[in-house]
Write a structure and sequence with these properties.
Layout: E1 2-10, H1 16-36, E2 40-47, E3 53-62, H2 65-74, H3 76-79, E4 83-91, E5 103-105, E6 111-113
Antiparallel strand pairs: 1-3, 1-4, 2-3, 5-6
Length: 118
């Protein structure tokens, strides 16, 4: 699995927040599907100093780069032009809720996320 940190900044014009709100429910529905499938580990809104939503962040996990690229292309905020700038970083989850240390090292030196029931 490949993990990524996605940091996306909204456009900054006067109508940016209104456009975000029009797409928001579709975006949240898609995010809930990504969580249910195990692809999104955490996500949320970036806020400005007044508490207004001005961007998004997510930590996601996909089987390969192509699956990630397809997901990112179809994220409602991306697909509908809400985000102006998207930063993507390769990421390795070190700690997750529900586990003592979050990861388990394998014999080959790679790491697996520890999930419930394991």
């Amino acid at each position: 699995m490949m993990e990524f940190l996605v940091v996306a900044h909204d456009h900054t014009d006067d109508e940016a927040l209104a456009r975000r709100m029009v797409v928001r429910e579709r975006h949240l529905t898609a995010a809930r599907r990504a969580v249910a499938s195990g692809n999104m580990l955490i996500g949320g809104a970036i806020l400005d100093e007044k508490g207004r939503m001005v961007g998004s962040m997510a930590v996601v996990s996909f089987s390969d780069q192509a699956a990630f690229d397809e997901w990112l292309k179809n994220v409602p905020y991306n697909k509908n032009g809400i985000w102006e700038e998207i930063e993507v970083y390769p990421f390795r989850v070190a700690v997750m809720p529900g586990s003592a240390n979050g990861v388990e090292e394998r014999a080959d030196g790679r790491h697996d996320r520890i999930t419930k029931g394991r």
